[in-house]
Amino acid sequence: MAPSICWFSNDLRLDDQPSWRAACERGEPVIALYVWDPEGEGDWAPGGASRWWLHWSLGSLDASMRALGGRLVIREGPRAAVLRAMAAETGADTVYANERFEPAARASNAAAQRELAKAGVGVVWANGSLLHDPWSLRTGTGVPYKVYTPFSKAWRARCQLDAARGAPRTVPWFGGALASASIESLGLQPSKPWDGAFHALWTPGEVGAKERLKAFLAGPVSVYSEGRDFPSQPAASRLSPHVHAGELSPRRIWHEAERAASAQPAWRGTIDKFQAELLWRDFAHHVLANFPHTAERPLQPAFEAFPWHDDRQALRRWQRGQTGYPIVDAGMRELWATGTMHNRVRMVVSSFLVKHLRQHWRHGAHWFWDTLLDADLSSNSLGWQWSAGCGADAAPYFRIFNPVLQGEKFDADGVYVRRWVPELSQLPNKLIHKPWEAPTAVLAAAGVVLGETYPRPIVDHATARDAALRALSAIKAPAS
DNA sequence: TTTTGAGTTGTTCGA
DNA sequence: GTCGAACAACTCAAA
Asked: Are the C-beta atoms of residues A245 and A17 closer than 8 Å to each other?
């Protein structure tokens, strides 16, 4: 019988990996293949931070396979051509792969499948990245959901979650010699070294992912529901980059969380909250898969006419964490230094960009895409459109975060700001989120010179808020 | 078809 | 300082 190819993409794991299991269980020789094909991702080729992660995650997967007596074969080029060539080279007649749901990836995967069919090679698709496929859940009238709550209710009522299945015990490795590109040759590492702090914070790969999940469910999850809004508390799971790379299956996470809840009944509520985030992730994929234009354009058509500003200088100051609003700057600097940003702060900085600076949400989406280790097209698009008020379940027009109040509420002791904006660290708690209100003597004592050691606010909150509200009313009720 | 209740994460103002 | 209401009107989803 002919060998088969297991084609890896955003599923860089062996545990609960349906296409890997299917390929191994077929019993014929298996080739484990990763194809580096950024062009197949359309306008959303992996950003810098995602590439950094991918580099190490591929290494981890290859190491796991070598420990099992095999290896990961890596090739570069258009997926259709690479897969077809590999099939021709090995005589493989079947490709096993997990589906992708982002519009460009879906299209190029479909094209690859057609190309393979011409050569008599079949593709067997599985879903390894979502709890549930994004197509079958529909409202009573048969259309996709646009609101999270009914989506989640329908999910809980109608979706059965299969058990997670461990890695296959034996792998019938393909015996022939196959050329493989080295991971280094893919050029995934940054040319300028901005990833200095990453290694201390992250362990890309399935092993690190499992450890982090275990550690999270052993303790921090118990305070997740109350603590997750406070950026200086260690209550976040920090699993998202692992999930994005596919090093953990969402199904595995769900079941492990369920197990923790059974062992600790008092944690039921907080674990519900945590599991709901997995449903949000599914919801984001549901929205992008069914409304494929929403990576670029607003779900709500009225927002096509929104009067965005185009101020490169302001955008740059936002990106660099130089807006003069400490909580915003702390978040943007955390992002740059660590490849992540606390969720609460993501909302604050995105609201600030689209409401206070009135820069198009796409600018923010692109910056996050390049700098976030967990950059996920579905979640990123949903999140930015939510912040801008133009997407599914969007924030109401009047919900404009006040960066001072957000700081005072969620970083009352200033621990988060002091960590990321050290030039303000000597200010007292009462002023750390609004240094421009500090008396001269206090500023001097703290070694702060506004406009020199730390910027003055780029915009006045009240003024910017009013302008944003006016802009929003303009697209809802155009002046006649 | 029409109606009804609701909509992740907020702020401001006036009492 | 605390508290409740207002902040548009619309869209979504289900009854």
From this structure: no
